[in-house]
Structures are given as structure tokens and as C-alpha cells.
Design a protein that fits this description.
six-stranded antiparallel β-barrel, about 25% strand, alpha+beta, 7 strands
């Protein structure tokens, strides 16, 4: 036999290409499984309650609303930038956000209510009903945005009128 058996030193200190590949594959699979688990739990948590941004004038504490449609990314970036195209300190990467057209729901003639925009780093299921949180903070005075929470569900009548 021409092949020499590796010593324990060679096996420990110098892994073969095959063992490196196996190790990397197992590591990648484990990382993927962890990421999938985290992603799955974040998705469930995101459906329960998530951080959102909306305009000062459009925020009504506890207001129910429906997500109508997601805006294209280029429009989202434009809405989250200053008129001269610069970004605000609070949002260095506007393309990290998703923008949605939302319509407040009043339980009566919902079509009569106007529409506005909502921004989030996660995603919303369009045509689902949500409810704004009861408290908000100024997020960006330059863009007139408040930060609040939104939870899926929302119920029938609106919490803040409209």
C-alpha cells in the first residue's frame, strides 16, 4: 500500500479538504436552521406587534387601518428622503424600509376615509386590518414622522375617529 496512514497529529492539526467541506456544510446547515428558526419567530412576533412610522397628522392612537398596497422601493426611498434627496440622520438607509398605502377603517363607509402612508422595516400583509398603538414618539421632525407600534387585527370601529 502506497498510502500512508495519518498520525493523530496530522489528523488534528491538518484537516483534509473533505473534512473541511463536511464541517462547512454542517456549519452552513446549522446557521440556516438557526436563521430559519429566528426568522420564523420574528415573523410570528411581527404579526403580533411591530414598529412602524407614519406622518404626524395621520396618527390617531388606537386607530384601526387596512394595508391597501405596498409601494415600490424607489417611491419609498423618495418619501423617506429630504426634498433635495439627502437622508435624515434617523434614516441613513431609506431602502431598508417598506412603505404601504393604508386607509383608516371606521366601521362605516371606509371608502370615504382618506389614505396615507406607513413605513416599516418588516412587512405587512396587504388587505389585513391593523391597529396603531396608543402611544407614539417623534421619530423625525424633518420628515414629520412619528414612531409607534401596529398590531394585526384592529377590530371594527376606529379608535381615534378620522
Amino acid at each position: 500500500m502506497e498510502r500512508e496512514q495519518p498520525t493523530s497529529e496530522q489528523t488534528t492539526d491538518e484537516p483534509t479538504d473533505e473534512s473541511r467541506r463536511t464541517f462547512l456544510k454542517k456549519g452552513a446547515l446549522a446557521t440556516g436552521a438557526v436563521a430559519l428558526g429566528v426568522s420564523g419567530s420574528n415573523t410570528a412576533a411581527a404579526q403580533q406587534q411591530q414598529d412602524v412610522l407614519t406622518y404626524f397628522d395621520d396618527y390617531q392612537p388606537g386607530q384601526s387601518f387596512r394595508a391597501i398596497a405596498q409601494l415600490p422601493q424607489d417611491i419609498t426611498v423618495t418619501l423617506l428622503s429630504l426634498p433635495n434627496g439627502n437622508t435624515v440622520p434617523e434614516i441613513s438607509q431609506p431602502d431598508d424600509y417598506n412603505a404601504y398605502v393604508i386607509r383608516p377603517t371606521t366601521g362605516q363607509n371606509d371608502r370615504a376615509a382618506g389614505a396615507t402612508y406607513l413605513f416599516t422595516r418588516s412587512s405587512l400583509n396587504t388587505d389585513n386590518q391593523f391597529r396603531f398603538g396608543t402611544s407614539a414618539n417623534v421619530f423625525s421632525s424633518q420628515l414629520s414622522l412619528v414612531s409607534t407600534s401596529a398590531s394585526q387585527g384592529g377590530g371594527g370601529g376606529g379608535g381615534g375617529g378620522g
